[in-house]
Design goal:
By secondary structure, this protein is of the alpha/beta class. It is built from 15 helices and 13 strands. Helix 15 links the parallel strand 12 and strand 13. Helix 10 packs parallel to helix 12 (335-345) and helix 12 packs parallel to helix 13.
Amino acid sequence: MDLHRLPRETLLQIVGYLADSHRPSLYAFALASKSCYISATVFIFRHIHLALRNPGELQHDVGALLEALSRTDSYRHVSALSLKGCLDVKTPIGTHPGFDSIDPQGWWKIWAPIISLIKTLPSLAKLVYDCPDQFPPSLLDALHSHHPRCRLHHLKLRLQTLSRDCPDPHEMALATSPCLHGAGLYCAWRDSEGVEEAMMELVAGLAPNLKEVAVTKFKPPGADRYAHQRGKRKGLAGFPPPGSGNLGSLTSLSLLGTVYLLSPTILQTWSGFTDFSCLRYLALGGEGAGWSRDHVNGVNGEVMAWMAHNCSFDQLKVLRLVLERDTDDTQRANYGDNAVLFFTSLGPLDELSVTGPLEPKVLKAILHQHGQTLEKLGLHSLEDASRDDPAQVSRHEIPMIFTKEHIQDIHTQCPILEELAIPVKRTQSNAAEVDIYKSFARLDRLKSLFLILDCSD
C-alpha cells in the first residue's frame, strides 16, 4: 500500500485508531512520510502532559514544548493539558502550602510559563490539575479570560476555607468557578472534617458546571479508639446553608476507600444533593490510591435492595462495584436475591466491573440484563471469611469458581464484548483448566483479556 496516495481523511482514521490502541505505533507511523507525520501531529499533540517538579524545570519544559508546537504548527491541535506533580517552592518552616505561604507576585511568576502556554492554545477544552498544591489564582484568572468554556478537572481539591471564619476569596472563586467540571477529594480521618458535606453543597448548585466527583476516604485500622464528638459543621461561609432543596446533575460519582457503604445512609445523603438519574458513571467501593483491600468497604445486599427500590439510574452506562455480604444473618441469606434485584433494575450497561461475593444466579442476571450491550466486563469473585470460623464457612461463602460453561455463557450473551477480566482457578493445567483457556478463543471481538490466576487450595 502506498501511504502517499491515501487521502488525508483516511490517514486521520488510521492515526486515530493508533492513538487509541497503541501509542508507540502512532509515533512510528509519523516517521513513514511527511503526509503521515502531518496527520499524526493532530493526535500526538492532542493531549499534552507536563510533570511539575520545580519552577526552573517548568520554565525549561514549557519552552521546549512551545518550540515543538511552533515547529510543527500544532498549537491548534492541543485540546487537553494535564499538570501532575508538585512545584518545589521554598517556604518558611511551619507554613502550609496554600495561598498564604506565597505572595501574589511570586505566585504569578512561578506559574507564568503555564499561563503563557495556555494563552497560545486556541482549542484548549480540558485542563487536568493533579497536584497537591492549591490551584493558583493566576491560572484560574487566565482560564476565565482566555478559555471560559475550558473544563477544569481538579483531582486533589482542598477546601482550607472550612477551617477559617472568613472564606478565602481565591478558594471560593475556584470552588464556584463555571470552569470547574470535575473534582477529586481525599478525606483523611480527622483531617478533612466537613469536606464531603461541602462538596455536596457545591454539587447542589454552588459550582454551576460541576459534573464529576470522586471522594476517597482514608481511616487507619483502630482509629475509632481516638474518636470524640465534634460540633456540627457550619457550612461554607457566605453561602446558603445545606439542605436548600436544589439538586445537582452529576454525570459521574465515585465513593471510594473507607467510605461506609454497609447501610444506605451515605447514598441517601448524596441523593439529596444530586439527581441520580443523570449519572452515567458510578463507582461504589474500591481501593483508590492503593489503599489496602482489607480496609475498603463494599456494598451489601441491604444497600443493593435499597438502590433497586429507591434510585433511578436512567442514564447509567458504566458501573464499578465492590460487594460485601451482610453481617446480619437474615440479610446475609438474601444477599444473592438482592444482588439479582439490583442488577436487573438497571438499564443495559456498556461497562461493568464487580469485585466481591458472586453467585451463579447473580452472574446469570448480569449477563441476561446487560450482556447484549457490554463492551467491558470485569468479574473478580472474593469472599471475606474474616468474621467466621473457617470450619463453618458455608458453601455460599467460598469464592465462585468460573467454569467453561460460564465462559460459554459470556460468549453467547455478550456479542460485542471487547475487554474481559476474570479469575481462573488453577488445577495443575489439567484438561478442565485447558478447556477454560480454549473457550476464550470463541470471544470473537475480544481485544483485551486479563486473567486473575487463583492458585489457592
